[in-house]
Specification:
Elements lengths: L2 H26 L16 H19 L4 H11 L4 H21 L2 H6 L1 E2 L8 E2 H25 L11
Antiparallel strand pairs: 1-2
Bound molecules: nickel (II) ion.
The site of nickel (II) ion has 3 residues, from helix 6.
Amino acid sequence: MTAICQIRQHLFEELDLMVRTTAALIEKIEDKDWHYQPQSAMRTLLEVVNHLVQIPTVDLAIIQEQDEISIRKLEKELFTDNATELLNLLHSGADRLKSYMAALTVEDFVHKTGKPFYSQEGIAYSKWLIEILTHLSHHRSQLFEYLKELHYNVNMFDLY
Ligand code: NI
């Protein structure tokens, strides 16, 4: 395995960690709490979770240069209030993302770029995979804080 493949593998393992810990947090949510909203300008818990589980699917579509209208349409189509569907989307999206990134040659993984609809500059696929992890981590922590506010029994160990 080349060094680049090794690093790609590390990133996949980090993605698996994000998926496993995010799914475990979502599984704790009780039906009565889905519409919790800390403040009017903030997302509801249901909206946070939808955005979070869509990340692998939607961010892959973004680097594949789908335009803003298609991305907004995709987000709308994927939105659900069914907990099983939310978990399935997280897992299937992450699997598709990994398959896609794994199928790239090392050269393409490191150097090939895609241009998100909101950006003037192309971004390398390897960098985008890192950004997806950052994005997941950001919203996982948002979910974690919502659960804390709702007095769920969560702590640092739920993140590893
Ligand atoms: Ni986001």
